[in-house]
Write a structure and sequence with these properties.
heterodimer, A: about 750 residues, Aldehyde Oxidoreductase, domain 4, five-stranded mixed sheet, 27 strands, about 20% strand, B: about 150 residues, alpha+beta, Ubiquitin-like (UB roll), about 35% helix, globular, binds FE2/S2 (inorganic) cluster
Chain lengths: ~750, ~150
Amino acid sequence: MAKVKRRHFIRYIAGTVGGLAIGWSLLPPRQRLTPGDPLPVAPGQVALNGWVKISPDDTVTVVMSQAEMGQGIHTSLAMLLADEMDASWDRVKLEQSTLDKIYNNQAEILDALPFQPDENGYGKRAARWMVAKIVREVPGAMGTGGSSSVNDLWLPMREAGASARAALIAAATDTWKVPVNECRAEAGRVIHTSGKSASYGELAARAGQLGVPKNVALKDPSAFKLIGKPVKRLDNPGKINGAAIYSLDMLPPGLLYASVKMCPTLGGKVTRFDGSAAQALPGVRKVVKLEPYAGGLASYGAGTGGVAVIADTPFHAMRAVEKVSVEWDHGPAAGLSSRDAINALSQALDKNAGKVHFSHGDSEGAMKGAAKTITAEYRAPFLAHATMEPMNCTVQFKDGAATVWAPAQGPAFAVNAVAGVLGIKASKVKLIIPQLGGGFGRRTFVDAVSQAAAIAKEADGLPVQTFWSREEDMTHDYYRPAFVSRHKAGFDAQGKLVAWQAATAGSSMGAPSFIDGSSKGAADTGYGFLNARVTHQGTDSLVPVGIWRSVGHSYNAFFTESFIDEAAAAAGQDPVAFRENLLKDNPRLLRVLKRAAELSGWGQPLAPAPDGAKTARGIALHPCFGSVIANVAEVSVGEGRKIRVHRVVCVLDCGFPLNPNLIKQQMEGGIVFGLSAALQGEITVEKGQVQQKNFDTYAPLRMRDCPVIETDILASAEHPGGVGETGTPTIAPAVANAVFALTGQRLRSLPLKLV
Amino acid sequence: MLTIKINGQDTAVNAEPDTPLLWVLRGELKLVGTKYGCGQALCGACMVHLDDEAVHSCVTPVSAVGTRSVTTIEGLQGNEADALRHAWTDIDVVQCGYCQSGQIMSACALLKKTPQPTDADVDAAMNGNICRCGTYPRIRAAIHMAAGSR
Ligand code: FES
Ligand code: FES
């Protein structure tokens, strides 16, 4: 089956690039130093390549192709460039990149290809190579997602820094007429052995004239000054004094506000509406009907229609939109309940196990010959992103051109969406991306962007901020899909695990089928199963679904790591020892597992909770996004059978740790995000309408329920893996496994509830 | 027309009296450091001080402010605020930052009332502030650090 997928995939690629000449396909992937159009510069400023500009006052402006949504990526990327450049860290400023092929995110797409880790045949290598080239060439492949930014930019940002440094040294040697080997760079200056020196600002103009140098060497890691160090975030100051600007805070002159009311039924639309009562209220400019706008990336979720009120203040808009009376066409989801939808996934698995995504040995045969088998069914619900900053977008459409202020994870998607709605060329759309108040995958989808463009069309050239209430945001998300997974394990007479089978059913998170990552985390477990088969059945969904922090790993790690724990119990073995046996050929995972056991005091007695309740530990281990993570959770049961998590030990191997401080921050954030979902996260749908509307019924974790989190980063020289999503998948199974150790009860549905 | 005291200045406000203070700040006065997160007193993104008390500006009608002075994140000053901002930076608390104005307003009100808070005090004072990025462990550490440094 894997072969079939590959062929399908290569056909897709061939279709995409069908018009390209054969000769092109033999060239290596394109360079990423010099953009198609030169960088825009201020007077006196010099661009040394596509990633860095220098001003006469020595300010080093680093170009950011990725969105900052809390993950610290701006600080991390600037570190890469500044270190190689020997720039002065306190002169570094950041600027958003333009749309250019050199900024396309290659790793995000390559990592999503439907290959399993053990595959390294011709098909995989050829496909990756082709895609790397295509990602270079196609517009629209910029994006922040898949925990891929550092993975993708580790070399390009460093090369850009090293190239700039070499250019500045060349300018100095050219000016002073001295040999290169008598000059060095340090903290924003080039220094000659004689003691003579010049600042980067002074050298920039000459460096710019001399052009981009050839054959530039990167630093040896032992020479890093910033890379690998716990450098503080560059965005701290504005985020503690109210000065940081998010998309909702943009205040272009003449700004109007639009509040939106969408059909409460997912996928519904307006039949007719009466805006007269709203129109009569103070400050109201216009009442507008909204067509359903799709998120763009999703296979499922055509968008939901509604109405909007444009007014002079946000409050006037919000108050008035409630007064618009609307007759809805509730559409095909009108009868939908999430309970039925999830039961249907289970029934789908009754019929067949789906397509094979991974196969090793003969799992059917081994299962038949097993002395003992166990089976279990697991379930994961729909989840909302609930970014702290609700969905919004500001658009000004004037004289045939648009300016857009949007919290966008996929800039080109946003630009194309606006261009499409307004009927203008993408080159007529200027996109400004401020700070993002959280993303978690939601802001890859451009439904709100398209809506904002449609609303701006009605505003006579004035800018309009379209903003969703929390209620609209929560009830019109692209939800993490619900999934059901069935597992079977077979043991021989000695209790050894000889066969492993997993079959999942659920909807793809919105990628075209060739990059369907639905079995990410189910197939690539890292365990050396003797015989294994992982299948997946893609199902249709009337609930719009989309990528959600850690994507397929968010549920597959729960399924896999819970069932491994069940298998250990069935074999009568300690959960850590059982996993160790399966990892004999995987030293990377084994090292993380052992360190987590050691740091958590695995196997040693555990103190009771502060109120005297019994406690227990549970462990989970998982490779994802090029990294490996283990969590050990310590839990107890409190009043009302409430599961409480007191402490989490987190061990991470993320390859070379670019900034240990930011990495730990991401582990904490990922664990809290995952724990919110594990203990309290559930979106339910009745009659096609999402039942949770605000933070009372879709309740993220709060301070008092937040465990102590201790993170240990294992040193590694490997290429950096992802960290933004890596922290999320393991906490749910670690807690479920701890609950089992404590109570003997195996919780197989999320969120975890003891009854 | 109402006049209320905001960040030390008497400020004329055009909005209707039932307008939530949050929307007066953000919409009319362009003080956008105070954030909207839920509109229902559930998340704390909109926290401001009325005198020294932390309140949810999203559910406080501007007419209810009366003679109390409003302090927003932009105008927050003093020993507690300085100590908190220092600790916030030192510990690298923020991630996306969207909730952080509200977190700091709540933390500052706590320290003004309880200069040496226990963990239980922190739990109680910060319970109204959600952070989707999960900065809670660092917020707790930063509050203790700020308390210890004064
Ligand atoms: S916006 Fe006021 S508490 Fe959430
Ligand atoms: S820092 Fe992002 S919500 Fe708190």
